[in-house]
Every structure is written in structure tokens, then in C-alpha cells.
Amino acid sequence: MRLSVESSCDESAIALFDPAKGMVGEWVHSQIDLHKEYGGVVPDLASREHLKNFFPLLEVAELVQRKEEITEIAVTNGPGLAGCLALGIAFAKSLGLAWSVPVVGVNHLRGHAFSPFIDLHASAPDEFEANLSQLLPHLGLIVSGGNTILFQIDRERRVEVLAETVDDAAGEALDKGAKLLGLPYPGGPRVENIATSGNAKAYDFPKAIAPRNERRFSFSGLKTSLRYRLEKISDDELQKTLPDICASYQAAVITQLTGKTKHLLEGGGYKSLGLSGGVSNNKSLRVAMEKLASRFQMPCLIAQPKHTGDNAAMIAFAAFADSEAVLDEFTIQPALRLDRC
């Protein structure tokens, strides 16, 4: 069995994965309540919390008693916050030395890329290889607070970035928009909740869908547009129109995401569509991607909510399913890209 460790940002997470059975267990300690006071993640505090939480997680999971079953430890080595990554790697390597098992580094973004396939493996572990081959080449979209990336996984499971943001990520745009609206951290989910009672067509925010031949996303102009609009309305008017503003702002983000995804699907050749990353929990985005996949008559694989954030399960699974994600010798790489190991 493979033990995995994830500490790229503000979640301390471990998971246990058996290739013959699937996920044996997952344990996560979130720091959202701690960072809420500061309106965002404070790197030094996040690092301190990892130091405090990993060994208690190990005790809760009772993994010391099962150490003889563990044959490898996989740990996130990037991208992420340098101090947080360092704590996770130190923890993993200390266990590797104590238990005499190898430790490998795994690309966090490649974990997200393969996370929609976790359920495919769980449904039939013995048939996973054959079932996966029927879904390749695969077009995937990672949407999070730090990344917005369209990528493909070809028949040989090689990952290639096709389009990514040139400025703010989609999740960052939602969080910054929420801050402009005076909403507490974490802002993206707050915008989504308020948007449920709003009219998405009430305000015309810029969609910024790049031309078909330009493979990029851009969300900074959307945030700027919201700021200019808010400067022209009173606090009372804002309270009355807040649901419509949230719905329209969120719709502009989703329209750009699905618009560029549609451009690439029209190129043909893909057998499945995937969605992962923290923002993939947004219900409106999920529905939009499912509709898009249905239009092109292909399955839409969306990571489970518990596997969309910074979780260790996707790290363990990537170490199993994606040979290019694994490095036997590795260093901390805070700015690691999806298509680099």
C-alpha cells in the first residue's frame, strides 16, 4: 500500500491507497477557520499548523500499527507554498527513514489532473487500465485559487498544457471579487451561495474569451470591471442588487471557462472531459461542464468534492496512475508546472 502526504497550502492531509482495492482511508486537517481572521492564507501560520497536525493525523489514522503494510510514501513536492511543502516533505522523509520505505515526490497539479479518474478505479480496480484507455485522449480543466489550466492526457498518458491563465486564476478572481463586495473569506463559495437567488443576466461583465487560436484565460479585467461598477453605486443599492451582481460575476467566470473548453473540444479527437480543482465544487460550473460534455457526446468526469481541494488521495492516485508524476529524487519546487516533473 502507498501512504501519501499533502501540504502544499493550508490543508494537512494523508491518505492510504491500495492499487488492488482503492482508497483505504483519507484524513485531512483544514486551517480555514484559522486563516479566516486574516482574509486569506498566511504562509507562516500554515507552515506552523502542518508541524502541529501531521503526527496527530498519523495517530488518528493508526498508521504506525500498519507500517508493515506500507511499501512507499508519496509526497507533494510542488507547486505550493515553500514552507508548507518543506514541512510535508520532512514529515514524509522522516517516516521513510523510520519505516525503511522509499519516498517519492509527486506533482500536485498532476494529482488534480488525474483526480477525476479515482472513481473509475474504485468502481472496478481490476479493469481500470482497460476502462481508462477507452477515455483517452482526455481533455481536462483544473480550476482553483492559484491555477486555471486546460490540458490533455493522450493515449500514452502524457500530459500537455493547452491553455492557462495569463494573470489571475478563476478562483482568485472569485475570491477578489468577493473581497470587493465585502464578503468574508473564503469568498468564492460566498459568491456562489448568494448567486443562487440572483439573475445572471442582470449585469454584463466582460467574458474575455480569447480568440479560437489563442490558448489563454484572463480574469484580471473582470475584477477591474466589478470595482468600477461598485464605485458608481451606493451601499444601499449594493445590498439590494448583491444577488444579481454575484450571479452575473460568477456567470462571466464560467462562460470564459466553458467557452475556451468548447473551442478545444471542437478540434475533435477527445473521448472524455474532466473537471478538477477547488473551484470545480461550484455547482453552476459542474452543470455547465456536464452540458458541454453531453453536447459533444462524451462522458464528463468530475472529481468528488473531497478530492477537489488539497487532498492526499489525489497524490497517492497520481503516483499509481501517472508514471510521469513520480520522482525518486526530488526537491521542493514551489512553482512546479503541470507538464514538468
From TrEMBL:
Family annotation (SUPFAM superfamilies): Actin-like ATPase domain
Gcp-like domain: residues covered: 24-317
EC number: 2.3.1.234
Coiled-coil residues: none
Catalyzed reactions per annotation: L-threonylcarbamoyladenylate + adenosine(37) in tRNA = N(6)-L-threonylcarbamoyladenosine(37) in tRNA + AMP + H(+)
Domain of life: Bacteria
Keywords: Acyltransferase, Iron, Metal-binding, Transferase, tRNA processing
Key word Transport present: no
Gene Ontology molecular function, alphabetical: metal ion binding; tRNA N(6)-L-threonylcarbamoyladenine synthase activity
UniProt cross-references to InterPro entries, sorted A to Z: ATPase_NBD (IPR043129), Gcp-like_dom (IPR000905), KAE1/TsaD (IPR017861), TsaD (IPR022450)
GO biological process entries: tRNA threonylcarbamoyladenosine modification
PANTHER family with a match to the protein in the record: TRNA N6-ADENOSINE THREONYLCARBAMOYLTRANSFERASE (PTHR11735), TRNA N6-ADENOSINE THREONYLCARBAMOYLTRANSFERASE, MITOCHONDRIAL (PTHR11735:SF6)
Identification of the protein by name: N(6)-L-threonylcarbamoyladenine synthase
Organism expressing this protein natively: Coraliomargarita sinensis
Gene: tsaD
